[in-house]
Protein: D-alanine--D-alanine ligase
Organism: Actinoplanes italicus
Amino acid sequence: MIIDMGTRDEVRVLVLAGGLSYERDVSLRSGRRVLDALRSTGLTAEMHDADVSLLPALQADPPDAVVIALHGATGEDGSLRGVLDLCGVPYVGADARAARLAWDKPSAKSMLREAGLPTPDWVALPHDRFSELGAVAVLDRIVERLGLPLMVKPAQGGSGLGAAVVRDAADLPAAMVGCFAYDSTALVEQYVTGTNVTVSIVDTGNGPETLPIVEIVPRDGVYDYAARYTAGLTTWHVPARLSPEVAQRVSETALTAYKALGLRDLSRIDVIVTDDGEPHVLGCNVSPGLTETSLLPLAVQAAGADLGTVLSALVARAVARREI
């Protein structure tokens, strides 16, 4: 992995973490790790919450670049990135348009399909339509159309919050209720069995590169919030236990998804690999977790790189965009 550090003299970085989403605690953990990693390379970095004091702080003393360690809507739906654009403050990661597209899972899946990439069949169901059309009739039709098992998850959201695997039609109503607690629209898709992997992609100045594939083996079979952030509930294999041919196919698929969605700097593409070696894209994350149990740092380490060095190079790219 070749890292172009670019210019970094006297660069001051602001790490945004916290926010008001359900993923606030995870974001704060990511932010602290990013802060330590950047400081380890000699950069001046500080952390700030995404609250009412942010804009005055940006106006009074604008940083050279921002690293977004916010998860959930604030960090991933493009809105904050649009505000940073208005303020003329460069940031690491996808621009506002790409983030907005990637954040909405049904829209992202449509784009992936247009790019010729396989992704599980799905239906997006707003809560209002669910009620108006009759819950029982709608759910019966979903099962008839998509079959079982099913994966139910918020159309907009992350960290496995509100997600559930439904193997029995009788459990589908409860899964929908749990999902609607986190979002007004549920994404119901076919549950594809296989090997759960994720591909981190970074572009430090030499074009986007895929990092070693991480295989995810949750103890209870479902990679939900607890499995993601509780030590001992998930085992990871880096690199993933795939044949060289399948691993190459997965990396190429992830890179195609990254480009199709117009992503930038860093992202994580989640994929399920069927028993016959076919990758199906599940989704992408424009603000990957950077905690002690997160997957992008595992991939960086497996690539023989240092997280702080990678982040520093991404900061340099962000600064350079402002100077163009």
User: Anything to note?
Assistant: The chain has three domains: 12-93+315-322, 100-118+192-303, 122-190.
